[in-house]
Amino acid sequence: MSRFARYLAVKVVLLFITTVIGVYITILVANMGGYVDKLRMAQLREEIGMKIMRDPSLRDVPIEQKKEMIETKIRLEEERLGLDKPFFIRSLYFLKDAMTLNLGRAQYMVSDSGSRQVKAIILERLPATLLLMGTSFFIIFFLNLFVGLALSRRYGSFIDKLYVASAPLSAAPAWFYGIFLILIFAAWLGVLPFGGMVDAPKPPTAWLYALNVAKHMVLPLAAMLLSSHFIGVYGNRTFFLIYSSEDYVDLARAKGLPDRMLERRYILRPTLPTIVTNFLLSVITLWMGAIIFETVFNWPGNGRLYYQAIGLKDVPVIVGNTIIYAYLLAISVFSLDIIYAFLDPRVRVGGGQH
User: CA 186 to CA 193: how far, in whole Å?
Assistant: First the structure.
């Protein structure tokens, strides 16, 4: 137990350091090394100057006095926003807030309810991303898994050769197929919507609303399937074929074990660590969504939120998205080592003999 506890402590420390470094790099990149703050200060100076110069109540105030008022107001805003401190100091404050999940307020973006809180903005977009990406992931993951296993039993058949030949189709990203699907089924045939999550105005009942959302998900799901199904099936099929050719599998087959029991005990079980790894790490990516993909389909999720935040240079929203993803990824990597120990008895957590 002491070795196990020591291993977990070291793992937590290393993952924490890695997360801190990743988040700090994100802060530096999002701020462009402080350049975004300079742009923000220039915009603030322009807004304050125009407001004071156009104020009717200050019409008779001399220009020199107006300039002094502008400089005083700018100085107060600098102190309030912390822009009077060097960027290095501010970046450390940003890092502290990010690591403690004090995400603060967005600079430009607002939620549909009018809130500028970064948490509110992210949580408002999260359900849409989880619905689309989660549905597509679970369908594609388990479909690829079972079809790959079925093809490993029919090696060399026509359907097996068809999937092998179709694997290069997955070289194109999902948004690429999405554009063509939109052109065919929305622009040309007019049977499916161009994008969005629901029609406007929204359907009056919950049942009609659910059906309408499902209709809007058809094209995105089809694009995701075309992009990842064939290569996923090919990879799983090859993976299962490799394990099927092991000596212990041939020995079990020679002893007369049924095919189903052979697959369950001697093929699927040794592959569980890899399958669980791919599953768990892929689940984490669901939270972030896909930036270009959600933008193509005008899907109101976290991926499109990220795209909008980058375009507006809204640093708090960018960092907020990144820090939560970093925490989820660190927790997943930490959990994987423990899960391995349960799935594969050859794995010894914390080192030792194998």
Answer: 6
Domain membership of residue 20 (yes or no) is yes
Residue 78, both tokens: 């600098």
Measured at the alpha carbon of residue 106, what is the angle toward residues 105 and 112, in degrees to the nearest 5?
100
Which residues, 6+ apart, have CB-to-CB distance to 98 below 8 Å? 23, 27, 319, 320, 323
Tell if the pTM clears 0.85, that is, is over it.
no
Helix (H, G, I), strand (E, B) or coil at 117: strand
For residue 175, is it within any domain? yes
Same domain, 175 and 235: yes
**44 is written with which tokens?**
């603030």
The count of other CB atoms within 10 Å of the CB of residue 273 is: 18
pLDDT tens readout for residues 210-258: 999 999 999 999 999 998 899 889 888 888 888 777 777 777 777 777 7
Alpha helices (H) along 168-268: 174-181, 206-244, 247-254, 259-262
Among 291, 309, 320, 290, CA closest to 26 = 320
